[in-house]
């Protein structure tokens, strides 16, 4: 009788007895992520479920990531097969307007220039001893594109899924803080005050409809390893531009995106177990991710300065900072910074073009790197 009572009581404290110090650290980190999402409005749709999943997986003996555990089911259902990020890309495509970049094709170049930080960070990660697949995943953080990071990590570096995903979404929410100092440091007052003329070119419906199809075919032929990413974002955009499947478009950017975001956040949080996450490598990954985003901004602004010189001062270099995939956040940052120096400046539409180009550029950057690694036999 006494033994039975003692055995029963020991079951009540089994969780405490199996509690690892790293689990406590991760529970605190999970709570911080929730706080940042709720109180500071830092990407709450992702950081709140990620933080909650992080807390759950670090409570001992819960069995949530064991076979048939509900977090394990969510993880297997959409992370192992890369389904979640691809479904989110359909929604992103349905919400993205590529007409600004079609009106000003030169902004495509800014979207391409904004990806150079990815490749430079890749080289730095390789120099620090990371294997090719992990270095690519770390470099992709610089795209400021959470779904792309998750796709690459879940496919080629699952052990880095947690830190890379948290870094991508955290830094994406910090774009309004990270970019302005870099923009001011690299440009002169005269450059920042440049007023750009807005040319209202009419993009035909046929052009807007053909754009996602052409990009999918051309991009898929050049870098087939990234075809799932490119195809899904362009599918969403094609549905939007066609106007023939309004219900599917609405579902993609609302109901499906919301449900998948919840499942994805919990699944990412579930990978953040203390013994796996709490190690020096995680800090290095976070630092490299921050470096990648800063370098993307640097290269984008520098290319903007080149366009400023080539066009005789007709292009404001600030719009180069919008050549990343944080859509439309980065474009708004450029608009706000431009008006700070010249109240008559209206850079939003030009920045939106660069931002839309950055959406395509980030996906193509990932596709190119994966295709090159495939050719080298690394993956």
Describe what you observe in this structure.
It is built from 22 helices and no strands. It has 379 residues and is mostly helical. The chain has one domain (72-376). The longest helix has 31 residues, at 280-310. The protein is globular and about 70 Å long. The relative contact order is 0.19.
Number of helices: 22
Major sheet attributes: none
* Unreliable sequence segments: none
Structural class: mainly alpha
Can you count the beta strands?
0
Name the helicity range.
Answer: over 70%
One letter per element, helices H and strands E, the order comes to HHHHHHHHHHHHHHHHHHHHHH
Separation, N- and C-terminal Cα atoms: 59 Å
Number of domains: 1
Portion of residues in beta strands equals under 5%
Average pLDDT, to the nearest integer? 86
Rg estimate, integer Å: 22 Å
Coarse shape: globular
Give the topology, please.
Layout: H1 2-12, H2 14-17, H3 21-38, H4 44-57, H5 70-78, H6 83-95, H7 99-103, H8 107-113, H9 116-127, H10 132-140, H11 146-156, H12 161-173, H13 175-186, H14 189-192, H15 205-222, H16 227-242, H17 246-253, H18 255-270, H19 274-277, H20 280-310, H21 329-341, H22 348-376
Helix pairs in contact: 3-4, 4-18, 5-18, 6-11, 6-16, 6-17, 6-18, 8-20, 8-22, 9-10, 9-20, 10-11, 10-22, 11-12, 12-20, 13-20, 13-21, 15-16, 17-18, 21-22
Structural key phrases:
single chain, 379 residues, mainly alpha
